Amino acid sequence: DPVTGVEMASTGEVACFGRTKYEAYMKALVATGFRLPKKNILLSIGAYKDKQELLPSIEKLHKLGYSLYATAGTADFLEEHGVPCKFLEALQDDEQRTEYSLTHALANNLIDLYINLPSSNRFRRPANYMSKGYRTRRMAVDYQTPLVTNVKNAKILIEAIARNYDMAVSSLDYQTFAELPSTSLEEPIAKQTPSLQELLHNSPFKGRDITSVNQFTRKELHLLMTVASEMRLGVERDGVLDILKNKLLCLMFYEPSTRTSSSFDAAMKRLGGQCIMINESHSSTKKGETLSDTIRTLDQYGDAIVLRHPDDDSADVAAEAADHPIINAGNGSREHPTQAFLDLFTIREEVGTANGLTITFVGDLKYGRTVHSLCELLKHYDCTINLVAPKEIGLPEKVRSGLQSRGQLGAESHELTPEIVAKSDVIYCTRVQKERFEDLSLYEKVKDGLVVSAATLKHAKKNMIVMHPLPRNLELSPEVDNDPRAAYFRQMKYGMFVRMALLALVMAS
């Protein structure tokens, strides 16, 4: 007896994980676009056996506060068993009375969920397959009202709703009433995944200066990356979080900055806090004020200070002068810790891990503070690092010898050869920084020596990525932008999440 049915409105399968079958089932429904009911549920149950089987579940819906509507036979059955409901009838168009019209309720999306269990009377269906029940099921599909046509599905859905799973919450709130089990165990029981609030409350960074990547252990880096992932989810879900509400961040930049300054500004505001932005041209530095005095001044206004300064020792000077935390946003050509953190996060997000990779640094390795910091950070991971730069702007010997002593130093070259490109999982480009050169003739000699172009990437792996801290000049061709392996614009967005995580870990109450 094949007949047209709404059961074939769509095809495909969804598989979801859950701690219970009810959570997994609800996740699977949500994944298909199924909308969970908020208030009004319509019931139309054909067979008496199905009515009896579903009755306990319907009673649960009533106790949960849902408004129940039912067609004639179902309404009578529920009233007999003490479950209040409102009667709706599928009347003809010329007989419509709005308050009792099932058609009107479906057409105006007044119903959040329609449970319609067709009659199993095999003698009636072939003769009257276009029944009112069928037409209302068809109408539910047409008006995109969530529809359930199987008693087992209805029971598990109602039980899942009764268990009150909140699909919008990513962290888990819980309270331990007793230590379970009470017997001694040789193996420890599984630990609960900590919530974001717990991670921030137990932060090892709270109130600390962030001046160098060398301050961080691998465990602390893992915490920072975990919180950054939570921030990403929070922004995608809520837009603005209130973790740093009533907190004030001072931004002091003695060098030009687009990404770092705006990223910190956006990160603080995404966390619900406020910023004061000061640049050198509007500060008392023009009147001869020292860095220490400027920092002591800002220290009176804010809860933390982000500083970028051309002097290599500026971060240490500021940390000595301030009572509140100092966050280094670049000190001369020495370090750029927060850029290194976001670079590491980018590698983890784009490639999956920092272990087992070959990372090739290309360009100005002498003055590229982002390279210096990332090289130090990568000592916590099992990776190979290639160095490609003109000899005049090669990696400082201190950083290079560190890589060599750890067994991480791979190929060294003055040219980006196809062989190096083919083995690279990450190509990290840097700009040749004109402002760092005392001899401009040397800058002119090396500025265009290394260029990553579409032709370069013909030799690269399909799943590798190209990174750049930006801004760029000619070292990275714009034609690479449309290659899916170009990660540098995504890298900027990751930077906001990492800086949100860092600010929260340092400043949260």
From TrEMBL:
Single GO biological process annotation from the record: 'de novo' pyrimidine nucleobase biosynthetic process
Key words of the record: Pyrimidine biosynthesis, Transferase
Residues of the signal peptide: none
Reaction it catalyzes: carbamoyl phosphate + L-aspartate = N-carbamoyl-L-aspartate + phosphate + H(+)
Stored SUPFAM superfamilies: Aspartate/ornithine carbamoyltransferase (SSF53671), Methylglyoxal synthase-like (SSF52335)
Entry keyword Transferase: yes
Function per UniProt: Catalyzes the condensation of carbamoyl phosphate and aspartate to form carbamoyl aspartate and inorganic phosphate, the committed step in the de novo pyrimidine nucleotide biosynthesis pathway.
NCBIfam families: asp_carb_tr, PRK00856.1
Family according to the record: Belongs to the aspartate/ornithine carbamoyltransferase superfamily. ATCase family.
Source species: Aureobasidium melanogenum (Aureobasidium pullulans var. melanogenum)
InterPro entries: Asp/Orn_carbamoyltranf_P-bd, Asp/Orn_carbamoylTrfase, Asp/Orn_carbamoylTrfase_sf, Asp_carbamoyltransf, Asp_carbamoyltransf_Asp/Orn-bd, MGS-like_dom, MGS-like_dom_sf
Protein's name according to its UniProt entry: aspartate carbamoyltransferase
Domain of life assignment: Eukaryota
Keyword Transferase tagged: yes
Pfam name, any one: MGS
Gene Ontology terms for molecular function: amino acid binding; aspartate carbamoyltransferase activity
Biological or metabolic pathway of the protein: Pyrimidine metabolism; UMP biosynthesis via de novo pathway; (S)-dihydroorotate from bicarbonate: step 2/3
HAMAP family: Asp_carb_tr
Domain MGS-like: 34-181
Enzyme Commission number(s): 2.1.3.2
